[in-house]
Design a protein that fits this description.
single chain, 10 strands, three-stranded antiparallel beta sheet, 290 residues, elongated, alpha+beta, 5 helices
């Protein structure tokens, strides 16, 4: 019973925090007025920043792919491919230009060797071999590595290797075997990147296309019909605003705490409650200086 009470209390607390967040008051003075001796012309507008996280899976077939069935017993793909997945998103209100300037995101890339190329793992001598002969030698190295692993594990290799030495040796054999297998079965590399899109809110539209996404091309232009729609949907809340004074001369624009959702097809990628001026209200106050 006590556990049920704690769960109910927690649910009430979470609801209270959510409601308190939803009722935050964001306002901005608008119109023409003087401030610190300067004339200010102000309007209240909102721009949204949408970060889209894209995963790119790039596959390149191995140079000996056509010999995999014959030498290793299983068929390998001969076709290179690039696949993209939209794996996440976030949305926020653009506060200032600095937020947009931070658009750069770290991206994982394959190591690039500059100045010289390392000796390929399939080169075991200076003798030039045809593709099939080189594939045969590579396959023999794979079987030799597997035999060495078996002898290490069973203690038949040398005087026996134990503890950390055995673990290190097995790890190196696994690494070498993987590199040889890539010569036949290719290599798949996954990189993740983030792209930032800034969009101005249109007070006449509650849904906007922020981007389009293609599984074969990644993010594409909004007018590229080959991509599926990434949408921002804005749902205004039923907020209460201060009563406007009909004799007021000072104007403030109050933002509406809207639900903002980023969707891709039927999938919801992000959801936040954000203050948006375009769906809010203008309230007039008496000028306290007059």
């Amino acid at each position: 019973m006590r556990r049920i009470f704690n769960i109910v209390a927690l649910a009430v607390a979470v609801t209270f925090v959510a409601n308190a967040s939803a009722q935050q008051v964001v306002k901005q003075r608008i119109g023409v007025y003087k401030e610190s001796g300067n004339v200010v012309v102000a309007e209240a507008t909102t721009s949204l920043v949408v970060d889209l996280v894209v995963e790119h899976d790039s596959f390149k077939p191995g140079p000996y792919a056509r010999y995999a069935q014959k030498l290793l017993g299983t068929r390998a793909s001969l076709v290179a491919r690039d696949e993209y997945r939209l794996v996440g998103a976030d949305v926020a209100v653009l506060r200032d230009a600095a937020y947009y300037a931070d658009a750069e995101r770290p991206e994982h890339r394959a190591p690039v060797y500059m100045g010289h190329s390392p000796l390929a793992i399939d080169r075991l001598s200076s003798t030039e071999l045809g593709a099939e002969s080189a594939a045969v030698e590579a396959a023999e190295q794979i079987f030799a590595l597997r035999q060495a692993r078996l002898e290490l594990v069973t203690g038949e290799l040398g005087d026996g290797v134990y503890g950390g030495g055995l673990e290190s040796a097995l790890r190196e054999i696994d690494n070498l075997e993987r590199k040889y297998l890539e010569l036949f079965y290719g290599r798949s590399e996954v990189t993740t990147s983030s792209e930032r899109v800034v969009m101005a809110v249109d007070g006449d539209a509650t849904s906007n296309i922020v981007a389009r996404f293609s599984p074969t091309e990644g993010l594409v232009a909004k007018d590229d019909l080959t991509g599926d729609i990434v949408m921002v949907v804005i749902t205004p809340s039923n907020m209460e605003y201060p009563q406007s004074d009909i004799k007021g001369t000072v104007a403030y624009r109050y933002a509406n705490n809207c639900e903002v959702v980023v969707t891709y097809g039927q999938e919801q990628l992000a959801r936040r409650i954000l203050p948006i001026y375009e769906f809010g209200a203008t309230v007039m106050y008496l000028n306290p200086n007059k």
